[in-house]
Amino acid sequence: MATDEEIVEVTLSADEYDRLRDVTDDPAAMVREATLGRVKLEEAIAFTRDGGFRESMGRERMTGEPIPRPPVGELVGFDVEAVADGESRLTFEAGPEHANPMGTLHGGIVCDVGDAAMGTAYASTLEEDESFTTLELSVNYLRPVWSGRLEAVGRVVERGSTIGFVECDVTTEEGKRVARLSSTCMTLREDRAAGR
């Protein structure tokens, strides 16, 4: 663990510094934020490599506070707010870094957040020795978004012994539906659940 006396310096070339000055008034703060963001991503990756939500300790963390971000959540920027009994709620702050060339929120990001909501909802129904994979994913985009806070609520509609059906609504803070998604999931057991 670092002490207050330990300082890490980052040396930038003149070109790198100028590039940073083109986009921010505080290059040092931007480098710090990027570095800490990378640390959070590495922590999320380590959690997943250790079994993530498939392991009993991870399953307990799924219903704890705060719920850890999966690596893709760290990368995209969504938070898992609640997961229990076949339902999950994720939040996401859409910003300019998520824009497509037209300036609106990229549809793949909306799909990814909805997919994560459905996946965590389905994962909450699994037994300790089970995992799952998505067989089919469908998304209908209903309105464009430029920025703002979105909520994705995933819920298991049907859960058989092997196949399940999950739905998700992605909405704005005002409750306007941005997209509706559905997916078909297959429960994996034994060697398949462990990734073998």
What is the makeup of the main sheet? 6 strands, antiparallel
Within the largest sheet, what's the order of strands? 1-2-4-5-6-3
Number of strands: 6
Helical coverage, percent range? 25-40%
Order of helices and strands: HHHHEEHEEEEH
Which characteristics define this entry?
196 residues; alpha+beta; 34% helix; globular
Task: Please give a quick description of this structure.
The protein has helices at residues 14-23, 27-49, 56-62, 71-76, 107-123, 190-193, and strands spanning 78-84, 87-94, 130-141, 148-159, 163-172, 177-189. With 196 residues, it is an alpha+beta fold. Strands 1-2-4-5-6-3 form a 6-stranded antiparallel sheet.
Give a structural overview.
The longest helix is centred in the N-terminal third of the chain and has 23 residues, at 27-49. The chain is 34% helix and 32% strand. The protein contains 6 helices and 6 strands, in the order H-H-H-H-E-E-H-E-E-E-E-H. A hairpin with a 4-residue loop joins strand 5 (163-172) and strand 6. It has helices at residues 14-23, 27-49, 56-62, 71-76, 107-123, 190-193; strands at 78-84, 87-94, 130-141, 148-159, 163-172, 177-189.
